[in-house]
Amino acid sequence: MVHVHAARNVRHHRMLFVLYKKLAEAGVWEGDVDSFLTWAKLGTGHVDQVVGPNGRVYYVPRSINFESMPQDAFARWWDRVIYLVFDRLIDGDELQLRNEIAALVDGDLGQRAREHADRFGAAA
User: Fold this and answer.
1) What is the percent of the chain with per-residue pLDDT over 70, rounded to a whole number?
2) Has residue 123 got a pLDDT over 50?
3) Would you kindly state where each structural domain of the chain is located, as residue ranges?
4) pLDDT in tens, 81-109
């Protein structure tokens, strides 16, 4: 039995922090990078459910580190993060920021980001 682990794309991982920096500089996100990552993990469902002793369900964010998440899973998660940012953080008045973020991504994801931006009258 052989287990093949594809190397994670470091540049792709770094784009997450570029995204955070753009949001923070624009005043869209006021917390630190850890709070942004927690928000992104919770918002995309990248969590484990834990039942506490009182019977309440708690959500614990999962790790996105290189050992915990292969590149294909990270790419899918990144796709959901971009959608989440466009859907919940950036409104129609922030067209320049929307375009800058859409420029960070390429391929099918970039096309979906531009389509989402177009809903608000932005030309990415």
Assistant:
1) 80
2) no
3) 10-118
4) 998 998 899 877 788 888 888 777 765 55
- Rounded to the nearest 5°, which phi and psi values hold at 8? -80, 140
Structure tokens at 11: 């540049």
Backbone angles phi, psi at 123, to 5 degrees: -110, 105
- Helix (H), strand (E), coil (C) string for the chain: CCCCCCCCCHHHHHHHHHHHHHHHHCCCCCCCHHHHHHHHHHHHCCEEEEECCCCCEEEEECCCCCCCCCHHHHHHHHHHHHHHHHHHHCCCCCHHHHHHHHHHCCHHHHHHHHHHHHCCCCCC
Q: What's the sign of the alpha-carbon dihedral 64, 67, 68, 70?
A: positive
Top pLDDT among 118 and 92 is at: 92
